[in-house]
Amino acid sequence: MSRNGQSGLAPRAIPALTTLPRPLFARVESLKTGTTTEWHSHPWAQLTYAIRGVLSVHTETGRFLAPPQRAILIPPELPHAVISSPATEMRSLYLDALAIPWAPAHCKVLEITPLTRELISHFGQIPAEYDEQGPHGRIAGVLLDQLQVAPETRLYLPWPADRQLQRVCEALYAAPDLPHTLGEWSATVGLSEKTLTRRFLQETGFSFRAWRQRLRLLSALPLLEQRQRITDVALACGYDSTSAFIAAFRKQTGLTPGEFLGTDLANPPRPAFALGAEKGSASD
Q1: Torsion angle of alpha carbons 162, 164, 167, 169, nearest 10°?
Q2: Which of 27, 132, 150, 247 is the most buried (most CB within 10 A)?
C-alpha cells in the first residue's frame, strides 16, 4: 500500500445498465476493502456518496475527494474512475440528464446536509421502478431539488495535461511525503525551475507549493477516516511534525484533525469542512 493508502485496491464492478428504470436510480453498496473501478463513462450523471468512508473520483482534469458529509457529482459522458477507502458504505445515485438540466459539465464536490443525507438513505430503500406520480416520485423530486441547491466545496486537486508535470504529480500522489524540492523535480523531468513553475501555474492554477500543500491535506482525509494516529498521518503526508500538520489542517479547513475525526454526521461542526484556497491561488 502506498503512503496515502491508494494502492492495493480491489476491482469494483460497474453496473451493466443501458438505460435507467427511472430518472433517479439508487445503488447501495457495502465495501469492506478499498476498491477502484476501471475508467468509464455513462449517459447519465452520477452522485457518488458514502455515509462512511472516503470516496475519490479521478478525471483527466482533477482528483475529487468526498469524506462523509460530501458527495461528488459526475456529469454525463465524463470519463472517470471511482476509488473507495476500506469499510465504505456507499450510496450512489444515477440521474437522468433530462432531470438535472442545471448540472455543470465538470465534476464538483457538494455539501450533503442532514436532510439530504436522510433523503439519499431513504431513497436507497425504494424499489427501482417506483411510481413517479406517487409518494416515492415526490421524494425523488425533493431530493433532486436539494442537490440543485447544495453548496459546492473545494475538495479537489487540479490535474495537469502536460506529461512532464503529470510525472511529478503522479509520484507525489502515490507518496505525498516525498521531500524533493522544486529544483530536484525540475531536474527529474528535464525542465528549468522557472519553466516548471510557470507551467504548473498555467496548467493547475496553483503554484507548485500550493498544489503540494493541497495534495497533502487531501491525502490525510482517508487516513483520518480510518482512525490512524494523527502523528502517523502527519508523517505519511510529508509534515515534519504533528504540530505543523495540525496548524496547516486548521488553516485550510477551519477544523483540527481531531475535530474532523469527531464530526457528528447529524450535527456537523461549524465552520463547514472545506479547503480554503480557491483554484487560481498561487500563494501558500
Answers
A1: -50
A2: 150
